[in-house]
Write a structure and sequence with these properties.
Number of helices of chain B: 7
Helix content of chain B: over 70%
Largest interface: A-B, 45 and 55 residues
Distance between the termini of chain A: 135 Å
Largest sheet of chain B: none
Strand content of chain A: under 5%
Oligomer: heterodimer
Strand content of chain B: under 5%
Number of domains of chain B: 1
Radius of gyration of chain A: 76 Å
Order of helices and strands of chain B: HHHHHHH
Number of helices of chain A: 6
Shape of chain A: rod-shaped
């Protein structure tokens, strides 16, 4: 609001100044006259012998050229001719014309007003908008570039990490596999040794058991045979028969 | 060969409201045309507003950039930007009024009439004195313009009257007369060579070739002068306003 009223004041001041300048510069200057108009005006203003205009001029010329014409008549004619010559002399070109000052002033003030409040700000705004757009586009491009390079470096870092991780995993897997292999071999060897040890032990146990069984069996056989022998005192043939019977008996029992 | 009377070259009869202070003649029409052209250029440029400028938009925006970079920033500095619409108007108005000097069928620089150069010079005088008084106060402004610092005191006897005349009297007159006289001279030159070419044409076209070539070159030169005088008027205005804004050091 304040801005608008200040603008209005400024506009009013500009118009006032322009009008004042136009009036001040124009006032001492008479309106433009053509040569013919000037001469006609001089002729109309001529007053001689109760007549005016062309008739007065004829009268004056006649009187002045007559013999014994009084000096004042001659002077009057001379001064009139000087006034007519004055009409023919060119107007000083450095003296401005009123109508041109007024029209030129109006033209300039109107143009200045239009430029000040409408045209200049509009074009300026368009220019500023373009500058702003170019600046923001450049900023955005720069930012995008920075972001892209950030993303790229991050990506590269991630790639490197992933590569390292993969290497580490592979290395780990390899060492794990080695460890497992060694472990498995060791365990297999241990198992094999255990199996061997156990089977050897089993064999040993079975052997001693078999020996033990055989021993008790033989003992039983021997005891049985001895019992039989003791119970019956027989001749050699009977003894042999008895032993064979017993053996057969034992054999059939097994 | 008959050379027309000088009054016939500059003094145009009015054809509307003759005899009144609002009489319209060729000069007046050219000033009105300068307004229409300036409004047209800036109006079209303002309406177009395309991101990539073209055509008339270049003229308006190039003009603004030119006035800002080559006139305002060189003489006043960033402070002068608020006068940009005034300087731009001044430049375009004077230029268009001048350049009708070479527009076929019109061929008359409206600023070869004293009216508008004088009017603009007086307007500039009012503005720079107003700015000076507003900025420095009446006393400060008079002191800085009439008693430039760094001058030995006795010399003020000579310097102060000179400054008084040059700042407050000669400046507006020189501003007006420079523009007016340049355009008068340009118009007379073009008329002279045109009349000479036409007169020599009667003796077989060969003798008229030289003045005609000169006429063509002078026409181009006068387009340049039209712009140059508009530029000089505007930059001097800026110098005066800038000088009134800052006290001389």
């Amino acid at each position: 609001m304040d801005k608008i009223s200040r603008r209005c004041k400024r506009a009013a001041a500009t118009v006032l100044v322009a009008v004042a300048v136009a009036v001040l510069t124009a006032s001492p200057v008479s309106a433009a006259e053509t040569i013919g108009g000037c001469m006609a005006e001089e002729l109309n203003n001529l007053d001689w012998g109760g007549k005016s205009g062309a008739e007065a001029f004829e009268e004056l010329e006649h009187a002045a050229h007559a013999d014994g014409a009084p000096d004042e008549t001659k002077d009057a004619l001379e001064s009139f001719e000087q006034r007519l010559e004055g009409c023919q002399s060119a107007q000083n070109p450095i003296i401005p014309e009123v109508n041109e000052i007024i029209w030129g002033g109006i033209a300039f003030v109107v143009l200045l007003a239009l430029m000040q409040w409408k045209l200049f700000p509009a074009v300026r705004r368009a220019m500023d908008r373009r500058s702003e757009k170019i600046r923001s586009d450049l900023d955005a491009a720069e930012q995008a570039r920075t972001e892209a390079s950030e993303v790229k470096s991050r990506y590269e870092a991630e790639m490197a990490d992933a590569q390292n991780e993969a290497d580490r995993i592979i290395e780990e897997a390899r060492s794990e596999a080695d460890r497992v292999r060694v472990d498995l071999i060791a365990r297999a060897e241990a198992d094999a040794a255990e199996v061997r040890r156990r089977s050897a032990q089993d064999a040993k146990v079975a052997k001693s058991q078999a020996i033990q069984d055989l021993k008790s069996e033989v003992s039983e056989i021997v005891i049985g045979a001895a019992e039989t022998v003791i119970r019956r005192n027989l001749d050699h043939d009977a003894q042999m028969e008895m032993i064979e019977d017993y053996i057969a008996q034992v054999g059939s029992r097994r | 060969m008959e050379f027309p009377p000088v009054t016939h070259l500059f003094d145009w009869p009015s054809f509307l409201f003759s005899g009144s202070p609002l009489a319209v003649n060729k000069t007046v029409l050219i000033f009105l045309a300068a307004v229409v052209l300036t409004v047209g250029v800036f109006g079209l440029a303002a309406r177009k507003r395309s991101l990539v400028p073209s055509g008339v938009q270049h003229v308006a925006e190039g003009g603004i950039n030119f006035v800002e970079n080559s006139i305002v920033m060189q003489t006043i500095g960033p402070e002068g930007k608020r006068f940009m619409p005034f300087f731009t108007t001044l430049f375009f108005f004077i230029f268009f009024a001048n350049v009708f000097e070479v527009i076929p069928g019109i061929q008359f620089p409206a600023n070869s009439r004293m009216a508008v150069p004088l009017l603009l010079a007086v307007l500039v005088w009012v503005i720079y004195n107003y700015v000076g008084i507003r900025r420095q106060g009446l006393g400060g402004y008079l002191k800085s313009s009439l008693f430039p610092p760094g001058v030995p005191k006795p010399l003020y006897l000579i310097v102060t009257p000179i400054e008084l005349f040059s700042t407050f009297l000669i400046r507006p007159l020189s501003l007006a007369i420079r523009l007016w006289a340049n355009m008068v001279a340009g118009h007379l030159l073009l008329v002279t060579f045109a009349v000479l070419s036409a007169a020599l044409w009667g003796f077989g076209y060969v003798p008229s070739l030289l003045p005609f070539a000169a006429l063509v070159l002078l026409t181009a030169f006068e387009i340049f002068v039209s712009g140059l005088q508009a530029f000089i008027f505007t930059i001097l205005t800026a110098v005066y306003i800038g000088g009134a804004m800052h006290a001389e050091h």
